[in-house]
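Justification of computing resources. Each target in the renewal requires a structure prediction run like the one illustrated here; the chain below, 505 residues long, is used simply to show the kind of job we budget for.
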Amino acid sequence: MTTQSPTQIVRSEVRASTGIAGLDDVLGGGLPAQHLYLIEGNPGAGKTTLGLQFLRRGADQDERGLYVTLSETATELRTVAASHGWSLEGIEIFELLSSDGLGPDAEQSILHPSEIELGETVRGVMAAVDTLKPARVVFDSLSEMRLLAQNPLRYRRQVLALKKFFAERRCTVLLLDDRTARDSDLQLHSIAHGVVNLEQSVDQYGPERRRVRVLKMRGIKFRGGDHDFSLETGGIHVYPRLVAAEHRMKSEAAIVSTGVAMLDKVMGGGLVRGSNTLFVGPSGAGKTTTAITCARAAMLRGEKAAYYLFDEGLGTLLPRSRALGMDVEPFIRDGQMRVVPLDPAEVSPGEFAHSVRRAVEDDGAQMVVIDSLNAYLQAMPGSKHLILQMHELLTYLNHRNVVTILILGQHGLLGDMRAEVDMSYLSDAILLFRYFEAHGSLLKAVSMVKSRTNHHEDTIREFRLGSSGLAIGEALKDFEGVLAGIAAYRGKLPLLADDAAESAG
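Resulting structure tokens:
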């Protein structure tokens, strides 16, 4: 007689989908079936919605579902479902406290949970399960059972009795708990086969930030840590934490053009696939326009681009690009370029990373532009988290051979300028933009100050925006102090502005 090894048993274990694709991904395929799980979170965290999605997924697979409610009525549950556009057909709702118990013919005119016999309540649940024979059960909520038990020992015994009962009937069970009794959390954790925690926090501005964490899951490997999720019309959407090491691909190490020959020369050949370039400088210096130029060049090569726009809307970006001879609207209409305007107050870091993954993996984007990191920072709880999550995202994009452009604005216009966060060590290349004053005019300069992949120029060149796009001048060898903003002229080098003035004359 042959016996299966523990590894074979785990691999052959049937999984029950939660009905939430992102959560199934975190769990490596769903919950191991026929076990009891604890779903905990404060009121409003999304436990009821998760429970309904779990049962609806079962109904789609012809699995009978039972929702046992001690705290909400069947009407309230149907209202919740209707708000998401769901039907609860195929799902039985069992109310332990029905309107019959509150009617004039009942023995008590007021029914309080502490006055109900706990054993009778548990027997009612068992009877409903034996009658309906469900494959999936949601029990809402344990806080009501805790009140009925009135002491921790009795409460634990009844939960253990339910666990044994459900196991014998091969049910996959979700126990919902609002964590009103902190002292019993560890008791529940030890009883349950797995524990999933839902959290929500409110900042001074913006919507709630929601996160899910799998605290425990016996017998399977899951992705730990916090994962952002949103609760919207249509249910819960979980955005699994990005782990770049899971997405490594063979590197191509190819160099592609920016679309401007002189800028390619400054950068040592152009942009490198599987690397990221940081465009850094003061507001209005030309960072966004340069990024649009690079994206347009990629699309003219037949590639796809994804442009994440935090700072401005399409209403200003498109007319400006068109005025500079870099119209990208036809590419947007054809689906070759995807411009995603984002509100940093509304989007979570996990949701943003998920959007980038979908653009790369589903849409085939070969260039990704993030404009800008300053606004993206506002969506984060702190700079430390920005660095960690951005590091993982950039590593992922590099592994996928994507050309990534990051835009970072600096405070100030001339002289000493600082950024909100130091991204220089995460960047494979840095293109620096500066204003400088010369001949009574405010001019612009550009310089490549770092590249891990190319042998780039060490020069500082004049940079100008015109109706025909970008123009890069000769190296400013006759100037000193350009990067400081106050340039001293030491020679006879003509400037692009001088050429423009002569042409006009």
